[in-house]
Design brief:
Layout (H helix, E strand, L loop, with lengths): L2 E5 L3 E7 L14 E7 L1 H11 L3 E9 L2 H12 L3 E8 L5 E7 L8 E3 L8 H6 L1 H6 L2 E4 L5 H13 L3 E4 L9 H4 L4 E2 L3 H8 L6 H13 L4 E5 L4 E6 L2 E6 L11 H14 L4 H15 L12 H7 L1
Parallel strand pairs: 1-4, 1-8, 2-6, 4-5, 8-9, 9-10, 10-11
Antiparallel strand pairs: 2-3, 6-7, 11-12, 12-13
The chain binds adenosine-5'-triphosphate and alpha-D-ribofuranose.
The site of adenosine-5'-triphosphate has 23 residues, from strand 12, helix 9 and helix 10.
């Protein structure tokens, strides 16, 4: 089994149950709030650990109780947490997530110590990248660090997976040499600076990313499924039919499950099928890391 490193964010999620998402200027009554471990990087590393991967993380939390809870949760699924820096006096990242009755959400992140994951931290734990075969990144830590991590991973010949969320425009050279990017349709539009709505437009945008040097795109389309685009062509793989109650971390579960399946020698197509099974289960449950299934549950649904 190949080793995986995730470089990214950790947040404590305040998952708020609400009949609907309020519009600007409106006050509404919610029906409950729960603290759930989250953060895009942490959700991905948690998924990889829970599904049996050999995985480490580079990131940062404060020396507060949320930091303790987030690290404990990752350790419980076997994640190597030695690269998660405890920043003295820092405040762990937090996310405020109203989830409506149809399972849709909006997210506001207060980055806290995620904003302090700098190149010095990356250098300090560079040995974790040396040990890894696959490096997974998102865009919820400073983009300068994401760029440095990508450069470092490329120079070391690693397989690079980027989940470009929260989506931010990056210099063209950033994309060159990345093995897989996993944008959803909105994020893909942000990467190329256009609003997209049809499969034709997604395909054109994906071609633009290939021209920037990305080797393969896995464009996730929520309940519709996933479009794979590479220089060899395109293929659409439909999602599994389930009743969603909370889509928080569907994409993170997909990315983590895809990475772990690749690390275990599965083909890309098998890895995507596995990832869509895992994320379909995740959307039937509430919360971020709390919704990630076990390996047995995913295999039973295959
Ligand atoms: P998020 O930002 O909510 O974590 P995302 O926008 O990055 O997710 P999506 O495209 O919403 O990612 O979902 C990723 C994958 O999860 C999809 O390709 C699909 O397989 C699965 N999925 C998401 N929503 C549903 C759903 N309602 N029913 C079944 N599968 C779903
Ligand atoms: O992708 C879902 C995650 O986005 C949440 O867990 C939240 O912390 C934000 O980072």
């Amino acid at each position: 089994m190949k080793k995986i490193l995730v470089v990214g964010s950790l947040n404590m999620d305040f998952s708020i149950e609400t009949p609907r998402i309020p519009v600007p200027g409106e006050t509404i009554m919610g029906t409950g709030v729960k603290l759930v471990p989250g953060g895009k990087g942490a959700n991905q590393v948690y998924t990889i650990g829970k599904l049996g991967g050999d995985v480490a993380m580079i990131g940062a939390v404060g020396d507060d109780s949320f930091g303790d809870m987030l690290i404990d949760n990752l350790e419980n699924v076997g994640v190597n947490v030695e690269g998660i820096e405890r920043i003295s006096g820092g405040t762990t990242g937090q996310a405020f997530i109203p989830v409506d009755e149809s399972g849709e959400n909006s997210i506001i992140v207060i980055g806290g110590t995620n904003g302090q994951v700098d190149e010095a931290i990356l250098k300090k734990y560079e040995y974790l990248m040396d040990e890894a075969d696959i490096v997974v990144m998102q865009q919820e830590i400073p983009l300068t660090t994401v760029m440095a991590a990508k450069q470092m991973a490329m120079e070391k010949g690693k397989t690079i997976i980027v989940d470009p969320a929260p989506a931010a425009a990056m210099p063209d050279e950033f994309w060159d040499g990345i093995d897989y990017i996993k944008p959803n349709e909105t994020e893909l539009g942000i990467l190329i600076g256009k609003e997209l709505s049809t499969q034709e437009e997604y395909k054109e945008a994906a071609q633009e990313m290939l021209r920037k040097g990305v080797k393969k795109l896995l464009v996730t389309l929520g309940s519709k499924g996933c479009l794979i685009v590479s220089s060899e062509g395109e293929e659409f793989i439909p999602a599994n039919k389930v009743k969603a109650v909370d889509t928080t971390a569907a994409g993170d579960t997909f990315t983590g499950a895809f990475a772990v399946a690749l690390s275990q020698g599965k083909s890309e197509k098998e890895a995507i099928t596995f990832a869509q099974k895992a994320s379909a289960i995740a959307v039937t449950r509430k919360g971020a890391q709390a919704s990630v299934p076990t390996l047995e549950e995913v295999l039973a649904s295959m």
